[in-house]
Amino acid sequence: MILLDGKKTSEAIQREIAAEVADIKAKGGKVPHLAAILVGHDGGSMTYVNNKVLACENVGFESTLLHYEDDITEEELLNKIREINQDDTIDGLIVQLPLPRHISSTRVLEVLDYKKDVDGFHPLNVGHMVAGLPAYLPATPYGILQLLERYNIETKGKHCVVVGRSNIVGTPISILMSKCTYPGESTVTICHRNTVDLAHHTRQADILIVAVGKPGLITADMVKEGAVVIDVGTTRVEDATRARGWRLRGDVDFDHVAPKCSYITPVPGGVGPLTIAMLLKNTLRAAKKEVHD
Ligand SMILES: NC(=O)C1=CN([C@@H]2O[C@H](COP(=O)(O)OP(=O)(O)OC[C@H]3O[C@@H](n4cnc5c(N)ncnc54)[C@H](OP(=O)(O)O)[C@@H]3O)[C@@H](O)[C@H]2O)C=CC1
Ligand SMILES: Nc1nc(=O)c2c([nH]1)NC[C@@H]1CN(c3ccc(C(=O)N[C@@H](CCC(=O)O)C(=O)O)cc3)C=[N+]21
Ligand SMILES: [Mg+2]
To answer: Which of 275, 282, 283, when mutated, tests ligand 2's pocket best, judged by the most ligand atoms within 8 Å of its CB?
Structure first.
């Protein structure tokens, strides 16, 4: 069993990005600049946004964190985004999800200029991704592809089973794994809440990607011997032995599943750190105007 080390891989990618930034600086170019919008005070969201800002500093990017109270109106938020669309000093913007219920995330994602949409959530980026045109790939699926690629994992002709169909993970990774480029060329099955006999499907998987948010959903009897298992889930569960009172758990029962796997991601230290690295990569691509009209 080989552990897919997301932390190490993320650090390697961040070193590559930092080297490019140093090069841009040396040539007198503009340093990439990421802006992040956070609404409200959700603990998890604040942690992720802070991690993103710290990662920007690590690679030499500029970053701006715009933090609003959860009573900001949808129109006010949309106007902020319109301002950023016009601001040439900012290359990329992410709006941390979920948003408060009175704000439509669909509206927010549509108003953002798709050329600055480094999360890859704008309908134009989604469409371009599906069509195989230049687009920002959403950071988590992009990170999963990086892990498969950097560990030289064969994907061609494999049966990839994805559990979860969200717009930010399950659906895009399903499409990407079916594409005719490496990593891809897999035969893909998508499972969700209404899938009948989930275990029947997961047991067929050569590559199992799980993005649900239910700790321990995937037990050892649901996994084929020798499978590659990618666990995207990150749920905070109470743990009195930890200083902060909780720890992160994936969707996979790691202790019992890992011995059966050829490769597996841990949680934490698996997909999560890659998500941050690929957000930086997208911001670098934005600064280089790699996605344009
Ligand atoms: N490591 C990282 O970088 C990231 C981690 N995450 C984590 O990944 C997890 C999933 O996130 P996200 O995709 O946003 O979650 P969503 O809640 O948006 O989607 C969860 C998906 O799981 C499906 N589902 C729910 N219960 C079951 C079940 N019993 N069997 C099969 N499918 C089920 C849902 O089905 P239905 O569509 O029918 O509701 C849905 O499609 C979370 O723990 C999140 O924190 C998310 C993003 C990045
Ligand atoms: N607009 C938007 N874009 C997102 O990409 C987005 C979002 N909203 N909303 C929430 C989800 C969740 N998500 C994670 C990112 C990093 C880790 C991560 O770094 N996890 C570390 C641990 C971090 C910790 O210790 O808390 C790990 O798994 O090792 C996890 C989850 C991005 N999301
Ligand atoms: Mg969600």
So the answer is: 275
